[in-house]
Amino acid sequence: MSSTAGQVIRCKAAVAWEAGKPLVIEEVEVAPPQVNEVRLKILFTSLCHTDVYFWEAKGQSPLFPRIFGHEASGIVESVGPGVTDLQPGDHVLPVFTGECKECRHCKSEESNMCDLLRINTDRGHMLADGQSRFSIDGKPIHHFLGTSTFSEYTVVHVGCLAKINPAAPLDKVCVLSCGISTGLGATLNVAKPKRGQSVAIFGLGAVGLAAAEGARISGASRIIGVDLNPNRFEEAKKFGVTEFVNPKDYDKPVQQVIADMTDGGVDRSVECTGSIQAMISAFECVHDGWGVAVLVGVPSKDDSFKTHPMNLLNERTLKGTFFGNYKPRSDLPSVVEMYMKKELEVEKFITHYVSFSEINKAFDYMMKGESLRCIISMEG
């Protein structure tokens, strides 16, 4: 056991005291892990748009003070009672959703939506006792997504930790614990394009580019990128995108533009924007008879999807996905292996590096649209 096991650890964390205000590096106290919990030392974390969304407190119950962060890599420091499949020194990726391995979803080959540990954006405490493991001067600091990786040490439920190959570089594979796997899995696990088929990707942010990477790995012959921002087109070529469509350039619906380009429609489409109009276009642009559209983006709560039922009756398929249909503990280690075998290229997603003391720069880069992924090194 480590020398700190069972003791409170004092360390630095970037605390969000209120919505939209710069994070403040504070000394926090991190309590030991309880039943089925693991305390880990975070080595690298990256900023995902979900962190920014909840930091801005848009459209949900704000919960502050809070330690954000959910895309990261680290090393197990100590484990709580009941934890048998992880031990101090293991290399892990914390994940915003989980796999208890006991519920109907976890026992089903078709689902990764664990009853116990699926994403909960409102919960600011741990499941074991309803308490936070973080505090400053005795006052609790809320958790985020069960991970809170903007801290040198954090406590996570064992079901939300993927044990990975210790040879994998943690400053690279940290980005696989959220957005990249979501987009990649949407293509590889759900859309499942065959070699030589055509794929349309709606939205060329990090998740959309990961979906394009999945199409590239699958051997798609044409990968059509759809985005309202033409500045993204050049970057997208690195991810296998072969053609680009900016809906603003046409006076007809983008689904019609794509149908005209592809003799009736693409074989597969993946929507990564959260825009209802993009979702409808992504579905209506696939070919009748065999086309499959996959929705990844999260819509606004009052949105509704509308299309003519004949689009379905003409043998188009509409699917949704959560976290690329990957089960965190069972499947993420194999995604890391795809990188280790050089099948999946991760480096091209990483556009910036900053030290922990400069974490607010990562927010600036994302707010300005300058970064895909900014890696935050906890050592600095």
Automatic annotation (TrEMBL):
Keywords assigned: Metal-binding, Oxidoreductase, Zinc
Cofactor section: Zn(2+)
Protein name: Alcohol dehydrogenase
Quaternary assembly: Homodimer.
All copies of domain Alcohol dehydrogenase-like C-terminal, residue ranges: 206-338
Organism name: Hevea brasiliensis
InterPro entries: ADH-like_C, ADH-like_N, ADH_Zn_CS, GroES-like_sf, NAD(P)-bd_dom_sf
Coiled coil keyword on record: no
SUPFAM superfamilies the record matches: GroES-like, NAD(P)-binding Rossmann-fold domains
Residue ranges occupied by any Alcohol dehydrogenase-like N-terminal domain in the UniProt entry: 36-164
PANTHER family from the UniProt entry: ALCOHOL DEHYDROGENASE (PTHR43880), ALCOHOL DEHYDROGENASE CLASS-P (PTHR43880:SF26)
Entry annotated with the keyword Metal-binding: yes
UniProt similarity note: Belongs to the zinc-containing alcohol dehydrogenase family.
